[in-house]
Structures are given as C-alpha cells and as structure tokens.
Amino acid sequence: MPEPPKPDASKVLTADDRVGLDKFEFDEEPFITVDTQVCRTCEGKPCLYVCPTKVYRLEKGELVYNTEGCVELGACAVVCKHMGKGAIRWSYPRGSYGVGFRFG
Ligand code: SF4
C-alpha cells in the first residue's frame, strides 16, 4: 500500500486533516454494537456529538452507526445515557485491526 503524502509542515492541521493521516484495518468482527431499540428512548443522543469521526448519525430519525472510521476514543461509551441498559457494547478491535495513528 502506498504511503500517504507527507503533510506540509508549515500548515496547521485540522482534526479532519489529522484523521486523514491515520490508517485503518477494518475488523469484520464487531467491536462496537449498539442496541438501537434502546436508542429510540434516548433524549439528546450525546453519542452523535462526541465522535470525531462520525461513527454515529441519524437516518430518518433513527440512530445508525458504522465503525469503519472509529479511532477508538471510547467517548461514545462514556457519554451514553443508557450504558447500564446495554445500549453500547464497546471493546477494542482484535489485535492488528483498528486504527493506526500517523503523526506526519
Ligand atoms: S447515547 Fe447511547 S442510548 Fe443514546 S443514542 Fe447514543 S448509543 Fe443510543
């Protein structure tokens, strides 16, 4: 796989620029699962606002998620209002899968 282009060291990187430097090995075994039935009762849905890579989003008013760009921050599990009801089950991907951080 070719290396990503080196960033311009004189440019201030945005969060999106930094995420764009990361590499991902997608784990087909789910490491985050969400009980979206529980999410229907969740007011405010804070998980929508804390994930820098937008794993969570609303489609036609329903919470949907895609772990492909997950940077394993874990903030979604911290802010989830219904963790106790099992709304989010969060773990790290298996070894060698998931995000690899690159700092340019
Ligand atoms: S915070 Fe938890 S319960 Fe609420 S929408 Fe997000 S995952 Fe579902």
CATH architecture of one domain: 2-Layer Sandwich
- Secondary structure category: alpha+beta
Q: Distance between termini?
A: 17 Å
Mind summarizing the main beta sheet? 2 strands, antiparallel
The top-level CATH class of one domain is Alpha Beta
Structure characterization notes:
It is globular, with a radius of gyration of 15 Å. The model has no long low-confidence stretch (mean pLDDT 90). The strands form 3 sheets. It has a two-stranded antiparallel ribbon with strand order 1-6. The chain has helices at 15-21, 36-39, 47-50, 75-79, and strands at 23-25, 32-34, 56-59, 62-65, 88-90, 98-100. It has a domain at 32-100: Alpha-Beta Plaits (2-Layer Sandwich), CATH 3.30.70. It is of the alpha+beta class and 104 residues long. The protein contains 4 helices and 6 strands. The structure holds iron/sulfur cluster. The site of iron/sulfur cluster has 13 residues, from helix 2.
Entry keywords:
single chain; two-stranded antiparallel ribbon; 104 residues
Topology (SSEs and partners):
Layout: H1 15-21, E1 23-25, E2 32-34, H2 36-39, H3 47-50, E3 56-59, E4 62-65, H4 75-79, E5 88-90, E6 98-100
Antiparallel strand pairs: 1-6, 2-5, 3-4
